[in-house]
Each structure stands twice: as C-alpha cells, then as structure tokens.
Amino acid sequence: MRLFEFAAPKSLEEAYKILSRADADVRALAGGTDLIDQVHQGRRKPSIVMDIKGIPEMKRLAFDREGLHIGAGASCTDIYNFPPVKKNYISIAESAALVGSVQIQNRAGIGGNICNAAPSADTAPSLIVHNARVVIAGPKGQRVLPIEQFFLGPGQNAMAKDEILLGIVVPPPPASSASHYLRFIPREEMDIAVAGVASMVVIDPKSKVCKTARIALASVAPTPVRAKDAEAVLEGHVINEALIREAGEKAINAAKPITDVRGSIEYRKELVKVLTRRTLTKCLETLGNR
Amino acid sequence: MAKIPLVFKVNGEQQEILVQPYQTLLSALRDELRLTGTKEGCSNGNCGACTVIVNGRTADSCLVLAAEANGAEVTTVEGLSQNGQLHPVQKAFMKYGALQCGFCTPGFLLSAKYLLDSNPNPTEHEIRLAIAGNLCRCTGYDKIVRAIQAVAQAEV
User: How far is the alpha carbon of B42 from chain A, nearest alpha carbon, in Å?
Assistant: First the structure.
C-alpha cells in the first residue's frame, strides 16, 4: 500500500485544521471501501487519510420536520435499518441495500457513495428523485447544494480541496407519494449497475392525477441524470399503461451511455426504458393505484 | 512514517500494538498478532476471505485500516469457539462438508454467525444474500447453504 498519514479528528474544528494544511492532500475516509482500494491501486494518492467517523455530526441519522438527515459517516446498514427510511424513502432504502455485500454495507455509506461520484452509484438517483441537498463543510464555513449539482463527472464532485461532506438532507416526502429504485446487473447481487433508475411520483388521492414525477438514471451518463422528458409525460395526467410506456421511451433521451465491459449503448438505453416502466409501475402499486 | 498505537480487543483479549498508518486491519491481525485464520484473497472487497466482525458487524478487513479499529472489539475465526467447544456454524460446516480447500471458510463462518445472530431463521434466499460477499471456488455453495440452514434448524 502507498504511504500516507492517518488522522482521526474528534470534532469538525479539528478536521478543518487538518483540511487547511497547505502541504497536504487530505482525503476523507468514511467506510473506506472505495478509498482504500483506490489507494491500493494507485488511483488516488492522498498524503493524509482522515477518518471522519469519530466526529459526532458525521454519524447523525435523524428524521424531523426538515426531513431525513444522513451524516456522511452513516453506513448503508445504519441507513436502511433506520425505520423512517424504510417507511418514507423506499428508493433510498432499496438502493442502500444494493451497495456491495453485507460486509461492504456495514462500512460503506451514502455519503461516501456520492463523494466517490461513480456514474453507477446506486444511491444517487434515489437522492435525486427525493430532492436531496448536500451539506458541505470546510474551514471557510458550510454551504448547501442540490444533489444534482454535486456530480461533475466520473470520480469528480463539487467539493473544493479543503471541503468535506457533512451530510445529506432529504426533505419529507410529499403526501401520497412513492419511490422505487431498480438496477440491472447480470447476476443476482454484488455487481455494479449496467443501468439504474429511480422514480418518485406524487399522485392526487382523489383525482389520481400525477402532481409530480421525478425520474433519475444511473450508469448511463458521466453523472447521474434526471429524465425530465419522461417526467413531463406523466405530470398533470392520470398515469396509465400507455403513459408509462411513453415515459420509458422518453427516459432514453436523458441517457448518454457508453459501450463498455458491462453493456453496450443500445443495451443500456433499452434497460433505461424497461427500468423506468418497472419503477413507475412499482410506485403505483405501492400507492395502491393499480 | 511514524507508527501509531492501536489499542483494541481481539477475541475478547486486550491488545496494544503499533501499526503503520497505511496498514490494513487484515495485515495487523495476520502480521502483527499472527492470527492467520483471517485470509487475504482479492484485497478489494469482493471475496470476503478476510471477513471479521468489528463492533458487532462483519467487515472486509482488507478494506479497514488498522488505525480505524482503535477502541474496537474484533472477532476473528479464532474467537468463534468457546471453552474448547466449536461454534455451531463450525460444527455444521464439518458435518455437512461445507468446505473443500478451506481458504474461504473463516469468512463464511463469520458471515454465517452474523446472519444467524440477527436472523435465527433465515430463508434460503436470505442465506444466499447474506453470503453473497463471500466467494467459494470449490463447493458450489450448496453445502454451505445447507450447513447454515442446519444451524437454524438446530440440527447440529
């Protein structure tokens, strides 16, 4: 393994001091399941690896009027076992339960998953459809960004060198809404998405009209993307089979995939169509509207 | 680079060692404490041969820094037996022939224990999901699944 120093601050102030060191390339460590492998392979070369799990704010997991607060150091296991997540943020629970194996989920969290900014990050589309915001912190203070603005490209996020992710805030889900995430992999578990889709719909309980639809895609562009054309097909209408099919077709507009070892451009576009239909259908089933 | 002190409990025993800041927990267990039951397979979190239990939860010890385990309680395969008695999952693996070369076995035993501790009556699907992070190239998994089912059904 490449050499680096290890730091384990116990407070944000301590962490900011380490981040301010001009001579150092600091990389925050949460679950470590991406970072340690990347350092091992020489893909990242930090001079200091800073374990953030000893900072109380980083382990935060709470649900209040503002919504769901996910500390950057909370593990997937912590997150999907948190009752408000299971109840109110189904697609977030589903995607956290798809990240790696049990061993990985016990360490890795959503914070690290988005900081790593892989186009295939399973938790990203679910955060996007739930309108999540990220809280970024550093020596110069805190700032909040919509999750969609956080991803800049493969492995690149919107944080400056001296900033770290503090956590994610997900607003309370609208009444009469449901969300689901599905991905396709060629085996049953333990793989990286060929394509992934999260959908969230808000349905008026009386008229059954779709008030809001949010659809986001993974693994089909340099960053996770929203399928806005597909959303537009659904909003303002009573969702039926024909509209679900049309939304699936339109979702492809947002996909700019590449051909690689996991799948071809054509295959990925086909998956986007099918997974969009399936997640929308599941959302309606959850709401009892089918 | 200066070594850093690591104080933690391994299999119930307090340990104080010095580790490199970049040393993995896997290496600390094997190379410093000579607990070689924990195996190194892929070194990237796919194979699960290095699975240990850290503060009650399984982890791939190749993807944990030793320094992260400061203050932690770690259980390795060496800590599974109690008072000279093998753990029920160990007995079941023997009885059902759930191993051939044995290299993956320590990891499977800890994943099985972790599953059964929280879910004493898992379905076959739950068992297969729980061991998805452990690769075995010999058995084809079937006997491993049967062994874990046998523990759940108290047949060992």
Answer: 11
Asked if residue B50 and residue B108 are part of one domain, the reply reads no
CATH classification at residue B139:
1.10.150.120
pLDDT digits (tens, 9 = 90+) for A55-109: 999 999 999 999 999 999 999 999 999 999 999 999 999 999 999 999 999 999 9
Write out residues 89-128 of A within 8 Å (CB-CB) of B. 100-104, 106-107
What does the buried/exposed string (b/e) look like for A54-77 if buried means 16 or more CB atoms within 10 Å of the residue's CB?
bbebbbebebeeebbbbbbbbbbb
* Domain boundary pick from B58, B79, B100: B79
Helix or strand run (H / E) with residue A125 = helix A123-129
Task: Supply angle C-alpha B1, B5, B11, rounded to 5.
Answer: 130
Residues A239-277: tens digit of each pLDDT? 999 999 999 999 999 999 999 999 999 999 999 999 999
Q: Helix, strand or coil for residue A72?
A: coil
The whole-angstrom separation of Cα B48 and Cα B43 is 9
Specify whether the CB–CB gap between B134 and B46 falls below 8 A. no
Domains in chain A, number: 3
For B136, the domain range is 88-152
ipTM > 0.95, yes or no: yes
In a shared domain, residues B140 and B92: yes
Instruction: Tell me: do B36 and B69 sit in the same domain.
Output: yes
Chain B residue numbers touching A29 (CB-CB < 8 A): 65, 68
Q: Inter-chain contact B65–A188, Cβ cutoff 8 Å? A: no
pLDDT in tens, B42-83: 999 999 999 999 999 999 999 999 999 999 999 999 999 999
Whether residues A154 and A60 share a domain: the answer is: yes
Are residues B89 and B148 in contact, defined by beta-carbon separation less than 8 angstroms?
yes
> Chain A residues with CB inside 8 Å of B62's CB?
36
- Picking from A51, A66, A89, the residue at the C-terminal end of a domain is A51
Token duo for residue B119: 């879910």
Do A77 and A99 lie in one domain? The reply is yes
Q: What pLDDT digit, counting tens, does each position of B132-146 carry?
A: 999 999 999 999 999
